[in-house]
Amino acid sequence: MEIIQPKLFVVSAPSGAGKTTIIHRAIGVVPELVLSVSHTSRRPREGEIDGSDYFFVDADDFTRKIENKEFLEWAEVHGNFYGTSVKEINKRIENGETVILDIDVQGAQQVRKNEEIKAVYIFIEPPSMDELKNRLANRGTESEESLQKRLKNAKHELTFKNQYDFVIVNDQLDSAVEEFVRIITRSFSA
Ligand code: ADP
Ligand code: 5GP
User: Is residue 3 domain-resident?
Assistant: First the structure.
């Protein structure tokens, strides 16, 4: 498999830290940026659009795609499968786009091991576990069981932050977005 050398940004965070919010705000100010659309076996949340937020597939389809080696990386996260399709990412890179991969810590490790891929790794951290819990609860998208699973996993995910090139604490949203955009635009000129 050959991945053409991209400007690639790998972004991970515990669920609810604000990664999606920051990425969407950054895309609003840096027009070259695109977010890679992952495949997932998770059910769509209210308002999520197939092909835009995720490609929503069932677990059997996902397993077939693993067997067909369609994923650059994939992982089971909070009880569902998530993966980045090689086809999807190559299409974007061939278009000359700068791609953000919003993937979990396991997926980031897989990409890091792939010597053909050079990327900048960014970890978004919540200011505290209490605030993380508030954000997840206020988002109103998770069942109590899913919320507890995500909080439990957050503690483990935070232990990976030192493997990233940059760690952004998302306390004040505007400052976190500014820092994120600064990291990205700085590496354009590197
Ligand atoms: P993630 O993609 O990391 O799971 P989201 O971007 O969905 O997280 O953010 C989780 C919730 O927290 C959302 O309701 C979002 O509006 C809110 N949020 C994000 N950043 C902040 C912040 N800096 N301060 C307060 N609330 C925030
Ligand atoms: P959510 O269900 O909240 O959309 O996402 C849950 C977690 O799955 C997040 O940590 C997100 O970064 C991760 N995720 C989303 N897409 C992918 C992917 O393609 N690969 C991997 N490894 N993780 C992903």
Answer: no
Q: Is residue 63 part of a domain?
A: yes
Q: Does residue 14's CB lie within 6 angstroms of at least one atom of ligand 1?
A: no
Count CB neighbours of 176 within 10 A: 23
CA angle centred on 82, ends 180 and 155, rounded to 5°: 60
1 domain residue, yes or no: no
Overall domain count for the chain: 1
The answer to the question of residue 117 being in a domain is yes
How many angstroms is it from 180 CA to the middle of ligand 2? Answer: 19
Report the separation in Å between the CA atom of 90 and the middle of ligand 1, taken as the mean of its atom positions. 29
Contact 40, 82 (CB under 8 A): yes
Over residues 94-148, the pLDDT tens digits come to: 888 899 999 999 999 999 999 988 899 999 999 999 999 999 999 999 999 999 9
Q: What is the pTM of this model?
A: 0.95
Q: Which residues form the domain of 68?
A: 8-189
- CA of 135 from ligand 1 middle (Å) equals 6
**Each residue of 50-100: pLDDT tens digit?**
999 999 999 999 999 999 999 999 999 999 999 999 999 888 888 888 999
The answer for 189, left when phi > 0, alpha when psi is -120 to 50, beta otherwise, is alpha
40 membership: H or E segment, kind and range: strand 39-40
Q: What is the CATH number of the domain that holds 134?
A: 3.40.50.300
